[in-house]
Amino acid sequence: MRKFLISRSKITQRFFRLLVVCVFMLLQIPDAHAQTNEVSLQTPVTVSGKKITLLRVFQTIKKQTGLTFFYSNQLLDDNEKINLDFKNAKLEEVLTFIFKDKNISYELRGNRLLLNEKQHTVKQEVNTLKASDEKSSAENIVKGQVMDADGKALVSATVMVKGKVGNTVVTDELGIFSVKAQVGDMLSVSMVGMQTEEVPVKDKAVLRVTLKNKTDQLNDVVVVGYGKQKKISVTGSVASVNMEDMQVPVRSLTNALAGKVAGVISMASGGGEPGYDNPTFTIRGIGTFTGSVSPLIIVDGVQRDDVNSTYGGAFNNIDPEDIASISLLKDASATAVYGARGANGVLIITTKRGVAGKPKISAKVETGINGLTKLPTMLDGVTYMKLYNEAQLNDPSNTSGTVTYSDEVIQKTASGLDPWLYPNVNWINRVYKDWTSMTNANINVSGGGEAMRYYVSMSFYNQDGQYNVSKVNGYNPNLNFKRYDFRSNLDMNLTSSTVLSLNIASMLVNSRYPGNSASTIWYSSFATNPVAFPVQYPGNKWAGPRNNGGVNPYNLVQNSGYSTEFKPSVQSVLALNQRLDGITKGLSAVARFSFDTYGEFGTARTSNNDLWYVGSRDPNGNLVFEHVRTGSTYLGYSTYSTGERVMYLEGNISYDRNFGKHNIGALVVANIRNRVIGSAGSLKTAIPFRNQSMAGRITYSYMDRYLAEVNAGATGSENFAKGHRWGYFPAVSAGWVVSKENFFQRFRPTVTLLKLRASHGVTGNDQIGGDRFGYLTYIDGSSGVSFGLAPTYYGGIAETVLGTPNLTWEKSTKDNIGIEIGLFNKINIIADIFRDKRTDILINRNSISPIAGYSSLAIYANLGEMQNKGIDGSIEYNERIGKNISLRLFGNVTYAKNKILYADNPKRTYAYQQPEGHRYGEFTGYISQGLFVDQGDIDKSPTQTRTVYPGDIKYADLNGDGTVNASDWTYLGKSSFPAWSYGFGFNVGYKNFEVSALFAGVADVGIMANGSGILGGGRGSDGVGVIPFAGIGQYPANVLSNVTSRWTKDNPSQDVDYPRLTITNTSDNNYLGSTWWLKDGSFMRLKQATMGYTLKLGRGKTSSSNEYKNIDNKFIKAPGTVVSGITSLQFYLSGTNLLTFSKFKLWDPEMGSNGAQYPYARTITVGVRAQF
Amino acid sequence: MTKHIYFKIILGAILPVALFSCRKYLDKKPDNLLTEDQVWQTKANAEAYLHNVHSYVYNTDGGDWASMGASDESSVCIPTVNVRQMVSGNWSAASWYFYTWGNFYTGIRKSFVFEANIDNVPAAEMSDELKLQYKAEVRYLRGWYYWQLLKQYGPFVKLTAPIERDADFNQYPRAPFDTCVAYINELMDQASAVLPLSWPSSSNYGRPTKGSCLAVKAQVALHAASPLWNGNPRFANFKNTDGTPLAPAAYNAYKWKAAADAAKAVIDLNAYKLFTNIDEGDASFDPYLSVRNIFTTTWNNEIIFANNNWWTWGFTKCASPGPGGYNMYNATQNIVDAFSMNNGKTIDDPASGYIETGFAGSDAPVSWAHKKGEWNMYVNREPRFYAYIQYNGRPILPASTTDDKNYFSSDANKDGKGRVEFYYSGKSGQKAAGSNNITGYDVLKRISPNDNIRNDVTSYHGPYILIRYAEILLNYAEALNEYDPSHPGIVTYLNMVRARAGLPGIETVYPDAVGNKELMRKHILRERNVELCFESDRYYTLTRRLMMKEPGVQTIYGMKVNGDDGGTGFSYAGFYTRTLFQQRFWDDKMYLFPIQQTDIERDQALVQNPGW
Questions:
Q1: Most buried of A462, A532, A727, A1145, CB within 10 angstroms?
Q2: Separation CA B612–CA A1077 (nearest Å)
């Protein structure tokens, strides 16, 4: 392998004066294009012309091959004019022709062509070393190498000796530089897109300088719909996620996004059961009240949000390690190309791709413990019995003063001496354990050459459930979630201008669940009272309910069998990318074909075991067992399976070209998509879901200063009648980069960037809810009747949907104004203000009186209107303090407040009950005025819906008719979905240590803590655990321990959690939705925190903190001779959801109004990350 | 070569675009859907539509408010159920308790659709005669739905044609009560003109007959004659927004005659008779089997209108004692006290021989009555008591084998009899869970000995009866007594019911009552209470007669289920202490259900019921 050192003498000759390196950035074609440029000397090129400049020749070759020429002005005058005529000639021939009379050699390195003086290199190298030995102080030649954080050499970085204007050099293609400097000089190393480094010169030093990426680079490209754009020229509202923040051991990708980027509001109110813990994820909040609010999710150019949507979307199982970028498209300008799928915003995920070079291996293994954020505290047995008695005595119809639990029973329970007859069980603690284990590993290899590049990755994720169970029955009933992800992203250069890319990702989720669902187990553990029965009697007899309804929660999970599921999915994309400069410069075309398949297979082995109940002891004191359930001696067997597939075909043609100061881009795209659900539940869903769409975009920019863009999309869906199938969605936007104006230059030292942009447009939402084909009257099987002596059942038919012929899309009119500010090259601020007005929201008609008799069927109409307004913004601050400390502070905030404008509601008798004008999910209820103090208070207050007693909640009589009834509830302001979402955090690096933390939270969200969110769903009453003693069948339920804070005759305090205790249910006056129960659900979490230490080995001493160090000559080697083995090792300790700050203490506030759910995971992991 | 590739690529990119010209891509919709027109093309589809209209005949498997829990005859042990909330006054126009308004109107709309379209069925598919019959059926059904609305909510919105979905719904006020009654009668008259007296083929059992129509008219007439709607001063200001009074202002005694005549019209059909065990093939009359098996045999001649679609298991499970049953449907001491002695005398009659306390020293002479060791309160009661009330110590009925019976017994009582243990420490007692049977009684009506509730095995053993002949006889006696107390028919028809129950004639037991309107009314209402218990008649009798506010009806008694027997079981006498367990809440507004608030907002011409 050839060494590439440049002699000191040559340097003094050649680099004393300013060097200019010409790097042609003719095309702002994204990475994929850049990679296509890898060529060999045999690549055919066509160059011809008379008296054309060498520069022009080089440009022409670059356009055809992607080759960038590197040379210094001293070496070559590129204005020199020559005549030449080559058609499909080998590049080698052309180069030989050009340089035949010149003292210039050339060398191909990747997609760079380096020009040099002929035949001096080796000799000079020797000279260099000698010179270096001879001269020790004074004017010295300082050598060094510049690399990026990954250890890749940085070409054409500028190295400047501070205070010496002439001493400026650029690094060569190995990142190596030699510059004349003295000991004590300060070198300034800079490069576009990187943070400038300053390094002091020491004696005899070979410097090694690592430049860190600038976090907000003007020349960054961002992923936008169907392509990429230079960040500076984007006029829509597009945000990118910092992928460093995404390295967390969280299964669900959308769950990991909360708090990390402006624009996302998510609320995971569905509980945290592994595998089913995906949140309600929105971009800029909720814009519609019947249709889907989820954004469109594009993975590697293909829509992937609805594949496996029952399971939260297969995209949620992509390992964050494999993701290169995540972009959020937020406004109409950015989303219009997605037509009728863009109204809820678009999330674009691109996975990593290979970069040419030696195989680069990176591996991560982490393992740790997994706990639950918050377990609710329920009453203990003794308190439970006392309060139950109290509630019984509070019942005015209990004239005899009967109580269920005698003092003797309470005494015996308290003593704990006879746990069989007088049990006292903390079910939640019995069923759930504090900690369980999890493991997460990823290894990926990337690399390749001119012909092909690859990124291959494997990852494994394993999480155990929190159930406190064992293998007593010979099987493990505990939950276990395993995920295997394989990914292979290949790029092949078929010709110099053709790249074929193939992404194949296969994922397998392999999980085991207990014989009962997580929700049932939670509900039961939450609700079962502590004194109903023990867990187990002596002699391996499991305890069970003697009467209707109760369950032994522990038995539900320990002895009810298990089910195993596996969910394979394959996601594949084949893309053919062709540059068409032959037709006209800047033109290229992409054809993309994709198919995804997803399967779900489950096997349930469940059964009921024998259960026993002990009600008494016989005269000898032995327990008298009652066999209350005769179980099965073996596990039953059942299976289920389902699956779906999606096929997608896309073609697009794009154009991008500079004409002097003008840049023009254009895109035309067309695609069709076909999704089929296997074993669909109904005739309607069995019909393939089909879409066709077409979109176009034109962008224009003048000197990256004045920007304009027009987008338009058209989408067709099979869901509507002919003539109503197609929706057309245009958007316009413009931007002004003020900081590029001449008049602005005097502010530049402070304000490095100032950009204003605005957009307006219409997008659509086809995920409109309701039945498919709402334009058709649908007659289906319905209930019937039995006739006859020995009755025969005759099924009926009935209209289930009454067709509305002209149904169509939901439309979203969006406006957005944004500002981007950069200060001191350290602070970046982006802020947007937006408005989204939805019209034609599809609703099931609401104003039809039931007397018309349509109650049992659906009648749809595009009648709803809604508005959503807000702001989002982010700020980031990067700083270095001294040599060793790096600091990054960041924060983002999103605020979106929606208002239902029209929902086809009848005009309410009382305006304060009109849903229009209120937020989506806004709680309704009565206005609490505290608790009734005494009978006198009751007598002079409005009549309540039932006879009330002191200690009951007093509601306001809103209509002033003297009675509180159904006319007196109103909207209470707070919604179950937050209006504010925010995140902030820091990364601090000190030498090899790094500490980071991210806090995320939501605000302006309510929890209706009256139990209305806790649904029995056939298992028992609603509201258990919150409403005192609402029961499971005949078993009164347990209550949260804060019920002890209650109104009593002895302590008639208003400052209590609960009113007078009664045995009651959700419809009782005291437990109606009201301001008494509406709690502030805002919370903030320490969502993730990491401490890391990086051990640097060999060449690849990488760290995210900037490092420089004197290194020995021998480490400066060409890329082909990389030191093998581990180059970097990072050890870290990481935690998620470690702390939660909230006023709401009863359960994890993220679960919203339903506290009886599997809470979210809290993890603490240790991990190691290695680069090879 | 390069150009060739370019060409291919362009072609590839253009291909999807080209697909747009193929407009058929989006022509995807459910194939072979049944269209509105097709429903009326074939007999099978048209009949299926009719079956759906039938399906709105409402029975809640014995578990609705009127059958269980809202009147003094029963309670439901779980305090959180809707009916318990209702009787404690926790009830408003937003409560949605037993909301049937929308459902019945849906049935009504479908009846219009059927009637309007049935003639489109080709003659080759369906004969005109059958069309006529089906039209009569849907008219009956429409009338039935209106009748159910009238009972529960009072005056309804009278529709004579379907309302389009885009209509102005605020133009539909309620019709005055008399108009409602007249409309139901009109529909019943139209239906009865076509429907047969009885169905020649038993496969049609369950369809309405002429008798069903007349029986509905009789029920409606009695309802209209009763004080709730006959000059009720409370309804004096019950008016539509335009001032139209919705309730008849003045008392009209003639309505009682109309009610009597309507009932007599059913009797005069001579199509019905009271069921006895002899109808089942038994050689000799047994009053216990006769009153019990009305509900547990298939179709019989006492049934006037009934519904085959009911959930036998659900009712049996809820009504049966623990541990096999849910122990939920609890009879009250109030209804227990209403059963007379087997000599026909009421227990408050000193001559009845009723003893309140002590244990019985011997078995009853008949197998189905009391046994030695049972409480004297349950000794020598009338046969219906034993057929309809599950009391402490009475053997479980839906249990076939000795093992099944023992399942209901504590170890000390496993004698194969399966005597139900409602006492505190018993299998069905309070100690087990705290909210068990709360009265010391379960409901036994409609429970079949052929079922086995321990193993959850139940079978269809007869329809859910909505109108039966015994009610018509009692309606007749009641109306006649109000209109003409001296009419001999009162005694005759009342005695028919008593005789089937194994009781002597009223004139022999209480001769004073004959011709005495007040006294006789008391006996007739007691007879209704007992004969029609748990059949929702008690609730409607109490409401239409404005008796709900009477204190005796709202103070609900049971046995002392919480008295700790200390393990002494059946021999614990403390259990049999009358205990007030519910002082119910009553407000006169509760005579009618509230119209749901949101329904008023969707039709602002609807006025709310008084007091809500």
A1: A532
A2: 26
